[in-house]
Write a structure and sequence with these properties.
Blueprint lengths: L3 H17 L21 E6 L12 E10 L11 E6 L11 H6 L9 H6 L3 E12 L13 E5 L1 H11 L17 E4 L1 E3 L2 E3 L4 E2 L8 H10 L14 H15 L6 H4 L3 E2 L29 E2 L20 H17 L1
Parallel strand pairs: 10-11
Antiparallel strand pairs: 1-4, 1-6, 2-3, 2-4, 4-5, 6-9, 7-8
Length: 330
């Protein structure tokens, strides 16, 4: 685990890079759903270090892309569905994201900016720690009291700003001199707002039960809760799904469900699966995990809503033409 000074230095480096350049699965009881606390209430959390000592931070960044579909192919009166796929840029190994590779160019055209925001990666941050005070009753809590937190960019900005405050002298995750974090939920513009969240001003140590829990259960390696990195075959499938989504097509289970599917959709095991048209690819391993849409963490995007696909047929056709032209040039 890095020192507070080293964390500040790394955050500053990331800030500098950003200024010179042109933002878990559902049903997991270990996740504390702070977005479900009542409006006007506050939950007190105590963050802990990452169990992966190679990680300088006490969080990992998670980047997902949401692909909306008008429905499911072959189903009558199917409602719109959303499929989330991992953006491979989160793995920081130089692999190019096939979707962002297309979308980046859209921001050069003012008429495509809204569509670009619609398909841009959505950031979240995974942390872990104790829930010291909760204003809501949970039906079930896990035996291990060390919980995981899916933190929105709005809350993360509050966390990050305080870490850069030179008046904080110790790591907030320190077992003896750490700080609690107070997640406060209000409302602004009809949406949940967490901007009044803050660090506690008073240092506190972990109590005997909390220390015993760390000793008994250990700390999570947060990287293990990132989605599996897509293979080359899966990257081609992701790009096909992206094209189908932009084109306003319904989600096609025969083509996609063994790779990525909407939350709650069961895998039918159909043998009539289609491989990516771009190039032949080996059949996927049956045991390969499938990424489903994850728990809605309650925050809303601050960017303007993109126009519906039906209302922008000409714009959609232009975008698809750009995508297909690039594939021809490649």
């Amino acid at each position: 685990m890095a020192t507070l000074a080293e964390i500040r230095a790394k955050l500053q480096q990331q800030e500098n890079r950003g200024s010179t350049s042109s933002s878990t699965q559902g049903g997991d009881r270990a996740i504390y759903a702070h977005w479900n606390i009542p409006e006007g209430s506050t939950a007190k959390l105590r963050f802990l270090p990452d169990g992966n000592e190679k990680n300088d931070f006490f969080w990992v960044e998670r980047n997902m892309i949401r692909l909306p579909f008008m429905g499911i192919k072959g189903q009558m009166d199917s409602k719109p569905v959303m499929v989330q796929v991992p953006c491979v840029e989160m793995y920081n190994d130089g692999t190019a994201c096939p979707i962002l590779g297309e979308v980046r160019g859209w921001f050069k055209d003012p008429s495509l900016e809204d569509m670009g925001r619609k398909y841009w990666k959505k950031r979240g941050y995974i942390m872990q720690g104790f829930v010291r005070e909760s204003p809501m009753n949970e039906d079930e809590t896990p035996e291990n009291p060390i919980r995981r937190f899916i933190i929105s960019p709005q809350i993360f900005n509050v966390i990050k700003a305080a870490l850069m405050d030179t008046e904080i002298e110790e790591l907030p995750t320190d077992f003896d001199l750490g700080l609690d974090f107070l997640v406060s939920k209000t409302q602004k513009g009809g949406y949940a707002d967490y901007s009044t969240s803050k660090w506690s001003r008073k240092e506190s140590e972990l109590d005997s039960q909390e220390r015993a829990a760390v000793e008994a259960h250990g700390l999570f390696d947060l990287s293990e809760f990132l989605p599996k990195k897509p293979s080359e075959t899966e990257l081609k499938i992701i790009h096909q799904m992206f094209e189908a989504s932009v084109d306003g097509q319904p989600y096609d289970p025969d083509m996609f469900e063994q790779y990525y599917r909407p939350a709650g959709m069961q895998y039918s095991g159909s043998s009539n699966k289609s491989a990516p048209a771009a190039a032949p690819a080996p059949a996927p391993q049956p045991a390969a995990p499938v990424v489903e849409s994850t728990t809605d963490t309650g925050w809303k995007e601050t960017t303007p809503s993109a126009p519906s696909v039906e209302a922008s047929d000409t714009k959609t056709a232009d975008i698809l033409a750009m995508i297909r032209q690039r594939k021809t040039e490649d």
